[in-house]
Amino acid sequence: MADERRIGVAEVQIAGGARGEAGSHARTPDLPTRGPPNTEKSLAVRGHLSYEYRALHHCMAGKRVIVIGAGPGGLAAAGILANRGFDVTVLEKGDRVGGRNAELKLGDYSFDTGPTFLHQKFCLDEIFADMDRDSADYLDFVKLDPMTRLSWADGASLETSFDQEKMEGNIASVFPGEEEGFRRFMAEQGPKLRAIYPCLQKPYHKLTAYVRSELLKVIPYIATTKSVVEELEKYFTDDRLKLAFTFQSKYLGMSPWKCPALFTILSYTEYKFGIYHTQGGLCRISHAFAKAAEECGAEIRLEAPVKSMEFEGRNVSRVILESGETLDCDDVVMNADYAHAVTNLMNGRGKSEEELRGKKFSCSTFMIYLGLDKIYRDEPHHHVIFADDYHRNVAEVGGEKIVSDDVSVYIRNSSVTDPTVAPDGHSQLYLLVPTINTRAGHDWDEIGPEFRERVLKRVEEKTGMKDLRDHIVEEAIISPADWRDKGSIFMGATFNLAHTIDQMMYLRPHNRMQGFDNLYLVGGGTHPGSGLPTIFESARISSGMLCEARGVAYEKSDLASAVMAQ
Questions:
Q1: In Å, how far are 97, 191, 222, 228, 456 from 500, measured between CA atoms?
Q2: Which of 302, 389, 453, 538 is the most buried (most CB within 10 A)?
Q3: What is the reported pTM?
Q4: Model confidence over 215-249: pLDDT tens digits?
């Protein structure tokens, strides 16, 4: 039994939002007042011009760019643009960088608020390369093997690996005869990804973009009504094994029975390129971006919430802070939640809430963050426990009406890999349950405590952590309503707009916002979509469009081609 139990809904700041209410026994987390770590880095990198030199020669671009929001997309754009001579100021309403990628502190325990999987590491490396830097100088990467443990209701369990030979053996031991389908899947999905990937690197703000030669090559993959599940039927017969290649649609907040078939590339990228952890948590990615962006000359202002923007014709002319301060600007990069921003920050020039509610949105998540006085060393870094009736569960989540009583649980036990996130002999546990967004208006203050009990009971029943509740010393909870109210996330839809065919590419909010000449979007609400790799790419796309509009050279680094050719 833990000597001291501090359990309740802790006072948690979400994505730089307002603070939540503390439970009677909850400990208020210590939130960092500044994002970047104390990483020493020479300003003259790889023979390129130092910031001091650029500061004297801002005539290269000379334009002031305001970035609203210090999420990973906003920070990436800030660094890329500052490195090309723009006068960049990042405005973050919270007291830390990262947005949904921020650090959450509970006493001596450190958590990632949101993303915990780093896929396609080369996308991250390209951001640093575009700032004339090397990611290895800022982050300590660990490639995970096994990547994830998958557990089904019947007791079957599969360890996944990026080592194809090992993965074939794991499949053969649990699903005999299915390994040949895995070989075919890996052989056929590679060309598909190589065809699709260039299309994820280009903007789609004009219909003429659809006649690009690279897009014509992928029409067979896009112009299909098949779902991810239906596509996987070509390779596997066991419904359980199909889930090992379809649950990744949850990264988009979608059901694999509705997610377009082209997104089988998500599971392919896992099994081809692997999954990484960054020591200290994935929140260190935003810290590192902030550090690099500041080295490039960007200014990052914390606790600087934006109230609105002012416009002159098709241009944003200034940004108004809640303090009353006014900042003139030449360009704006919007990294706030898309739907929240266009309904709250655009001074009547955005969209109505009613109009946005007509769009399709992703699910939400119910989060439990636990500081433990014990380390469960037999539990893996990543563990997905599927609902007993997974199809019904995802249908209820996607239906946006019923809070499913049969839950799937994702567990991140990073202390088995990373000793820096908890005190010696202690660990932290991150529990995520996909659930409905807030469209139906459920009262999470009322249903939250029972839902928490349901989740903890399932974890204790389905893992080796039978005494989990006896070892909790710190706890915080974020419900869908918290994401909405404290995180400024429209309808609590943590994965943003759904990634249906009618909400992708040209039909998704454009990287340069329609109707404006100097307002750019980055993040999960614009093209290419949600998830860290695509958010990184949105920063490159929007930065490229801004540079082109201002006549500033931006030759994007290309590390992906060599990796994909392997």
A1: 30, 22, 11, 12, 33
A2: 538
A3: 0.89
A4: 677 777 776 778 898 999 999 999 999 988 987 77
